[in-house]
Sequence to fold (175 residues):
Amino acid sequence: MDEHHCTDDQLCERCYGQAVRAKDHQAGVIGQCWAERVCRGEFRAQAGWPENDPKTVAIARRLVRALARDPRLLDALARACTAGAAAWWRSRPAGYRVEHSAARAIWALETDEHEHERCMVVEGGERCPRAPEWLVRSEDAAWDDYAYVCDPHRELVAAPGHTVTSVEQGKGETA
Ligand SMILES: [Zn+2]
Ligand SMILES: [Zn+2]
Fold:
């Protein structure tokens, strides 16, 4: 006689073990993608992933919520998720390791009469030769009021809080 009748939100030992084995990897991959997204932002200069930080765990639980109805399973998958994020963070590609302050220090903006025709970014003493495609503006008085930049330099210049609008060639407004 089959006496097995556990439910999705209250798994027995055996079903819990099966569910963890089945979904653990997926939760880890969700964590890797999460870490990669975070690493594109201001947080990228952090040396380590705050794996056991309550806020991190809370976000991880939200990210894997669709995979589990059982509270114990949700806990296990949240751990797998933030562990996957931490693993990605430790081995993240060199391109993600640029310290924010260092990135700021190695480039500057040049303002001249050609700013509508040429990206304003200067790196290593060389003015970028590309045409600007984006106008980046900031409300922050401590920063330059605006910058005309090419597409590859858009991410470098447009920090959070800046507005980015597309520039129609040759029709830039005079600031
Ligand atoms: Zn069961
Ligand atoms: Zn450029």
